[in-house]
Every structure is written in C-alpha cells, then in structure tokens.
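Researcher: We are triaging several targets before committing to wet-lab work. For this one, the compound of interest is pyridoxal-5'-phosphate. I'm pasting the protein sequence and the ligand SMILES. What I need is the predicted three-dimensional arrangement of the protein with the ligand bound, expressed as structure tokens, so it can go straight into our comparison scripts without reformatting.
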Amino acid sequence: MIPYGRQEVTDDDCAAVLEVLKSDYLTQGEVVPAFERAVADRVGASFGVACNSATSALHIACMALDLGPGDSLWTVPVSFVASANCALYCGATVDFVDVDENSGALCLASLESKLLQAENDRKLPKILVVVHLAGHPYNVAKLRALCEPRGVHIVEDASHAIGAERYSDAVGSCSDSVVTVFSFHPVKIVTSAEGGVATTNDEVLARRMGELRTHGVTKDNAHFSKPSHGPWYYEQQALGFNYRLSELHAALGVSQLSRLDNYVGRRAEIAGYYLQNLKGCTLVLPDEGTRSSWHLAIVLLPADRKSAKQSVFEKLRREGIGVNVHYIPIHTQPYYLGLGFKQGDYPNSESFYERAISLPLYPTMTDCDLDRCVTAVNSVL
Ligand SMILES: *Cc1c(COP(=O)(O)O)cnc(C)c1O
C-alpha cells in the first residue's frame, strides 16, 4: 500500500537522537530551546514554545490568552478535532464558521456576517482559530481586518503549514495573528515523532505559555510574587500541565528541520504532477502568490458524483493506493452532536467532506509510486 503520508528518518536524524540519549539530559536540557529557536528563526517569529504536541500547544495558547468559562472560540468544521477541543479544555464554548465549498478554508463572508450578528448579540468570540488546510497559506491579513477592531485574537493552526509562505511572509511569523501553532507529528511536513511549537512575537504570551507547559511554575526571579527563599526557589503561579517535549524529540526535530526546503520542494513537485495528470477530479490548490507546504493532496469529486465517493475510495484502496479523507466535519462528531450541533449546520463543510479524498503525498514517494497513483485514480474515475 502506498500510504497517504509518511516520514523520512535519515542516519543523521538517528545520530542526533543517539547523541542526546547518551548525554546528561534527556529532558530540560539545551536541545529543546535550540529547537524552539530554530523554528522561530525559520518562520521569522521572536519566540517559540515547544510542547509534546500541537494539541498541547493550542491548549496553552488559549489559556495564555485567558480563554475561560463564559468565553467562546470559533474555528472551522473542516479540520482535525484538536482545533476545536482546545476551547473545551479551557471551559469555553466552541462555535464554527463554515468554509468555502471548493477550498475547504474558512469562508470570509460567513465570518463577516457571523461577527456582525455576534456583535449585535454582544457575544463576540475571544479567539478565532484559522486553519491552513493542506498547507495552503490562508490570507490572515484579511481576517485581521475583521477581527482586530472587534478585539478577537487570531490563533493560526498551522499544523499542516511549516515551510509555507504568502508573498514571502512565512506562516508562523505572526504578522497578523497572536500565536501560530505547528505540529511535528510524523504525517506532517517535518517530525519530532510527537511535538508541537507555538510561535509568537509577544514576550508576555511566550513566557506564560512556557510556564503553563511546565505546571504553571516560574523559576525567574523577576517574576516572583513572594520574596525568594534562595537559589532553589520556584513559584507555581497558575495551574499548568506537564506538556514538555523531551530532548530526544527535540533533537529529531532540529535534525529534520534542516531538510524542510527539500521536503516542501519535493511535495510541490508531486502536487504539480497530480495537477497536470489527474482527470475527472479537482485538486484543491493554494492561492496565487503563495508557497504551500503541500501537506495534503486533496481532490474533490464533481458534485454530481459525490455518491460514488465510497466506492472510489474502496477501489483505490484495493489498488494499493492509501487514500484518506480530511476531514469528517468536527460538528458532526458524536461528541459535538452531544453539545447540540446538528448535521446540516455547516452545509459547505459537509459538502466538502462528501467530495474530498486525500491522495498519497510525501517526499520519499517515488515517481513510480506517483505514476501508479495517477493511473489508478484516472482509471477508477
Ligand atoms: C495534526 C493536527 C493537529 C494536532 O497535532 P498533534 O501534534 O498531533 O497534536 C491539530 N490541528 C490540525 C489541523 C492537525 O492536522
């Protein structure tokens, strides 16, 4: 089976991890800060805060922005559940903004009318989580124009999008948002096995996220609320978690990050081949002027053929093509139905889901694998 995604781990990666394994520090050493620095520098942000997953990073980002009971967070239904769950962890509520039917990305017009309504009802959200679906950079500047005047914080879920750019502005630079979160899960662009990094230009936010990641504890003299007892002194000032990344994971991340451009380049090449050679379906494309990291090759079946999706999917799997689907709309998950959302609430998200199939796309995919995928898709369709 040609998988839909897979990591590449090189001898250099193994050597980097082994070196840490034999060193004095398996956690809380120098490698995690080096990984944070490397990610922040790469995307042009002032600070990076590493966590054991992007999910944890989203959680502490929301906490650091004081999301709590009585607040709401908005995101899109076409994403992984983590984009919404972070609100619930904070005791806040979630609401969704429908997507554009053909891109799967947040629909700006829907957002605008929902914001106007919420403004009238005095129920504006505290946070909007925007998702760079498939690694295609969303135009966050346009969101900012709607959100900033209303005091809505923008958090970018860039789990798919390290290495992506919009007019030379890297996703993660936070030029139009407060925080950006990257995932380093093995199916993403580069991996630390498990891991996530939040980038920000706000020093206070970076410090708060760093503390929340480690039990809400600070060891910084300058921020103690009581007189220090001595050099061993630390203070717990908030209820945080142990969301730390280990030194081993960070070493893998640092080593992988050095190949980011090669990976994004090869992914774009594969996407280009799909674009040129696929017939009978539409590849979801990034905007002009952007460089996508091409996390996913999502193709859409024509609307009049969506009833064939299951059989298309099953035929491709039988042909050894490891297709997948991104995403089952979050609001239709049983847990979210239990919160009161209903099938039919976000018709564009549901229609995108009914038509979407993700094709294999990963940097070590050979031209021969790629040709097999194209031939199989074209013959099945
Ligand atoms: C993978 C993913 C996450 C979660 O990442 P983890 O590092 O596995 O916690 C969140 N949001 C999106 C859009 C993702 O694809």
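Researcher: Any quick observations?
Model: The mean pLDDT is 97.
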